[in-house]
Structures are given as C-alpha cells and as structure tokens.
C-alpha cells in the first residue's frame, strides 16, 4: 500500500467502508477468501428447476441448457442486432462499446430499455422464472447487453468475476445476482464461447490496483483493473478446471455473479452473438460504490428502475 504523509487523506478506494464484506482493490497483495453468501436462495418446490439442477448450480456456479428457446423466437433479435449494427449513430451512443483495436462494435448496453425484441428477450418469462428461483425473490434487471463478437474482429474478455466489479464500482452489497447468456448464433468450441471455472463462485478473489475515474470507458473494451492476478487464477483453474458450454442458437447459460469467467477472441468467420441479462434480487439493490467514486451510469448498473422483471412482461401483455 502506498505510504501517506501525516495529515494526508487516503485516496478514494483505499479505506475499507464499514459493511464492506468483500473488500477489493485496496490491499497491496491479492487474496482469496470464502464466499459469505448463499449461492441458491430458492427451493425446488418453487420451480421450474429441479432439485438436481439447483444442486448443480450450487456446486458449480452455472447451469446450461441446450435449445431452451426455439431459434424462431430469436429471429427478431438477430434482425434487431443487424439493424443496430447497420446504424452508424449507434457507435457514438454511450451504450455502445467499440473493440479496443478496431472500429468494430463490441457491445451495446441496456438493450432491455429499447422496447424491442431484445428487451422482450431480457424479460422472457422462462428466463425470469429461473432467475427468481435461483435468487429466491423477485428480481429486477441490473444490467443487459449484447456482445456481438464478430467474425475475425471480436476480441477476448479477460478473466474476471462480475461481482468484483459490481461490488467495487457499483455498490452491489451481496452475491445475490445471476447472469443469463442467450446464444443468438451457435456457440462453438472455436468462436470464443464463454469459459467458466466451475466452483470458483465460492471464493472471492480480491484484486490489486486502485479504480481510476470513469474506469468503465476503458474496462468495457479491455479490463486491466479488477482483474485477478495470475497466481490466484492458476490456483482456481488448477483446483477446479474449466468448462465452456456450447450449443446452437437458443442455448442458454445461467451463471453466478461471482463465478470466474472469460472468453477468447473470435478468429473464425462466424460471429458469436450473445445477449446477457443480469438479474439482481430486489433485496440486493445497489448502494454507494465501495471504491468511493461516483456510481457508473444507469445504462451499466440500474439504480432507478426496480420493477420486478416478471411485471415488465405482464405490463407488456396487457398493454
Ligand atoms: O463492468 C461490467 O459491468 C461488465 N464487465 C465485464 C467484463 N463483464 C460483466 C459486465 O458486463
Ligand atoms: Fe463478465
């Protein structure tokens, strides 16, 4: 830790706030500590997941389904993605993220706010029901995005725990959120599928390095602060191994907010386009960021709209 002369105030993010159960980016050395929150909050009786599926998620921190959604249901989402990619004005929108070393589109955030096929997918009753069961409460959409990962151009997402960033930069208090990745295109072993370290969700890797102002502008293109050190990663991967769920369009992976994950660049010709929706328990709303900086914008981390995701669908049906 940097030494300070007497009377100096500590830089933002180097003093642990009371109630911060997962301090990170504060100490000079990385550490791995046990998870302090349950993984599965609901019961098998709540449905739709079976006791065996809940136990698998509890142990591994993810659950994948081949062909959960029929590909025809995803056609309007692919058409919307094509429209967005063709729209030059999207590239300069704050929600758009451009690849670090080209002008290719990497991500578009807050797709659930677009009143469109992608928004309907984020609030899909089958997905919301699974998230509600895993989190044992109503859920709202904390974040959504489409990761385009185009052929030849789509770059990697380095290893990270989403929760580490959501806790430090967004003030998410507890590990009670789940991500859902829906494949709009096939995810193959070759086109940069999601890779996970099963079981890593039970360990919190505290990272080294102070969070810069407006970190998201760089981190969403290529993350360099809030990434685990290589020794911690080697330990987790050595202990637990790696999985890379693959499947056709319509396959779906749910993964815990603290599972270690990443993905490789896509140097094949086929895009790997996935829609990610993050459901957070309504009992786990964001507080002030634990790094002491201003919160990130709402299109990355929701702070205003806590409508249960299930009610969004009902409201659309009755509209
Ligand atoms: O900073 C975030 O919130 C995002 N960053 C990564 C690399 N994954 C999750 C999330 O979209
Ligand atoms: Fe992630």
Order of helices and strands: EHEHEEHHEEHEEEHHEEEH
Strand fraction: 15-25%
Tell me the number of helical segments per DSSP (H or I, 4 or more residues long): 8
* Spatial strand sequence of the major β-sheet: 2-10-7-12-5-4-3
Q: What integer value in Å does the Rg equal?
A: 19 Å
Bound molecules: ligand 6CS, fe (iii) ion
- Which topology does CATH recognise? Jelly Rolls
Form type: globular
What is the domain total for the residues?
1
Low-pLDDT stretches are 1-8
Q: What is the helix fraction of residues, given as a range?
A: 10-25%
Mean of all residue-level pLDDT scores: 93
CATH architecture: Sandwich
State the major sheet: 7 strands, antiparallel
Protein described:
The chain has eight helices and twelve strands. By secondary structure, the protein is α+β, with helices and mostly antiparallel strands. It has a single domain, classed as Jelly Rolls (Sandwich). The strands form three sheets. The protein has a seven-stranded antiparallel sheet. The chain is globular and about 50 Å long. Residues 1-8 have low confidence and may be disordered. Residues 160, 162, 261 line the site of fe (iii) ion.
């Amino acid at each position: 830790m940097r030494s300070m002369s007497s009377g100096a105030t500590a830089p933002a993010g180097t003093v642990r706030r009371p109630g911060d159960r997962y301090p990170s980016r504060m100490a000079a050395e990385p550490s791995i500590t046990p998870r302090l929150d349950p993984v599965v909050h609901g019961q098998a009786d709540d449905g739709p997941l079976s006791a065996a599926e809940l136990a698998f998620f509890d142990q591994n921190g993810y659950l994948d389904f081949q062909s959960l959604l029929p590909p025809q249901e995803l056609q309007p989402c692919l058409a919307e993605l094509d429209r967005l990619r063709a729209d030059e004005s999207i590239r300069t929108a704050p929600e758009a993220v451009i690849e670090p070393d080209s002008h290719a589109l990497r991500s578009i955030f807050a797709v659930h706010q677009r009143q469109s096929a992608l928004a309907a997918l984020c609030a899909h009753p089958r997905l919301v029901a699974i998230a509600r069961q895993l989190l044992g409460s109503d859920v709202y959409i904390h974040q959504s995005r489409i990761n385009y990962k185009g052929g030849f151009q789509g770059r990697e997402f380095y290893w990270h725990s989403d929760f580490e960033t959501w806790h430090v930069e967004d003030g998410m208090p507890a590990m009670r959120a789940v991500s859902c990745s829906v494949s709009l295109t096939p995810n193959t072993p070759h086109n940069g599928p999601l890779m996970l370290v099963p079981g890593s969700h039970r360990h919190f890797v505290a990272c080294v390095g102070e969070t810069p102002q407006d970190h998201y502008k760089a981190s969403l293109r290529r993350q360099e602060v809030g990434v685990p050190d290589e020794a911690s990663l080697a330990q987790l991967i050595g202990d637990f191994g790696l999985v890379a769920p693959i499947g056709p369009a319509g396959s779906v992976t749910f993964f815990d907010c603290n599972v270690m994950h990443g993905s490789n660049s896509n140097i094949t010709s086929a895009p790997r386009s996935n829609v990610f929706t993050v459901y957070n328990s309504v009992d786990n709303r964001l507080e002030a960021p634990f790094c002491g900086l201003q919160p990130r914008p709402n299109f990355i981390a929701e702070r205003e709209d806590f409508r249960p995701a299930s009610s969004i669908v009902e409201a659309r049906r009755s509209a």
